[in-house]
Amino acid sequence: MPRGDKSSYTGKQQRKAEHIEQSYEERGVAPKEAEARAWATVNKQSGGGERSSGSGRKKSATAKRADRKDSAHRAAQSRAGKSPNQGAARNKRSGSTSLAELTRDELMQKARERDIRGRSKMRKDELLRALS
Predict the structure, then answer these.
(1) CB-based contact 82:88 (threshold 8 Å)
(2) Phi–psi pair at 119, nearest 5 degrees
(3) Residue 91: inside a domain
(4) Structural contact between residues 37 and 29, judged by C-beta atoms closer than 8 angstroms
(5) How far is CA 131 from the centre of its chain?
(6) Which has the higher per-residue pLDDT, 128 or 96?
(7) Rounded distance, CA 17 to CA 11, Å?
């Protein structure tokens, strides 16, 4: 497929790119630049043109989002000088049962075990209050 060929994109992706391009042009961006930005946005949101089912496994948008979030979380921990599981290992070694020392994921697991309603949207402090 030659570079710049848009035939592998779905109709929905093409409509989205066209809408984004029009939006950029309304804001005064040059037409060629608007088109480039629009397709870059579509590529970032959907991973590029749709591929045939034989080109490898497909991931859902939710799975891609979760992978990016996990990768960003690990990168932040790395920058802070922590290994990804350092917090969990510390909690297990200390033998402490204090809820405040648990990670949000560990609190979420406890909330799941107690079947607390609305837990998936709760922040750490909200989980702490609900579990207390």
Answers:
(1) no
(2) -65, -30
(3) no
(4) yes
(5) 27
(6) 128
(7) 10
